[in-house]
Amino acid sequence: MEDTPFAEASDRPGVALPPREAWRRKMRDDVLDAARAMAAEKGWDSVSLSQVASRAEVSRPTVYKEFGSRGGLSRALVHREAERFLIGVDRALRQPAPTASDALAAAVLYALEEARENVLVASVVKAARDGTDSLLPYLTARSEPVVTGARLLVRSWCQAHYERSDTVRTDQAADVIVRLTLSYIVLPPADRTLRESAELIAAAALGVLSVETGPSPATG
After folding, report:
1. Which tens digits make up the pLDDT trace of 143-154?
2. Alpha helices (runs of H) in 43-166, residue ranges in sequence order
3. N- to C-terminal Cα separation, the chain
4. How far apart are CA 180 and CA 108, in angstroms?
5. Exposed e or buried b per residue across 137-148, where buried means at least 16 C-beta atoms within 10 angstroms of its C-beta
6. Where along the sequence lies the DNA-binding region (predicted)?
7. Residue 214 pLDDT level (bands cut at 50, 70, 90)
């Protein structure tokens, strides 16, 4: 997707990569796939770089050279998951809906549902509830690349559908949507369905936008 915040300019269809770069990318994906699977199976706290390297069938020094440290692997794992996640959110936002409010609520609902079904997110949330949360900070306190990418995506949508809102309002609304959605993913309310939560998050953001302007009648 061309305008996804995480997209790389070098990822152009039909452009062949040099063999060494193609190998490096495949190796990187294999390592991240192994890390994701192991984190889902037994929790990230129980996973070592040596174990990940063995499962990915590469050497430990290769993993260190590519990611730098266990923290670097953690960041890369969360970043890739967020990239895929945001592509889905972007598609959800583009789906036809009666009103902009409906479109936003549907996209938030998609995010909440995907997070619930995501094995990596599920393992992170479970670990946090059990008192171990070494990967959780990369979704929250150390998540600036994730939060920034999500905010840019949502802000762009807000600007397109609430053209009379100034940049301060659209920035605030995007921040409300992203941070509330992230909060609900990590600690979902027990007394609300996902749809109710999505509608509440959308209403909170639209309340910010509607202070000075009304919503567009439809998503178009």
Report:
1. 566 778 888 999
2. 49-56, 60-67, 70-94, 100-117, 119-129, 144-161
3. 20
4. 10
5. ebbbebbebbbe
6. 48-67
7. very low
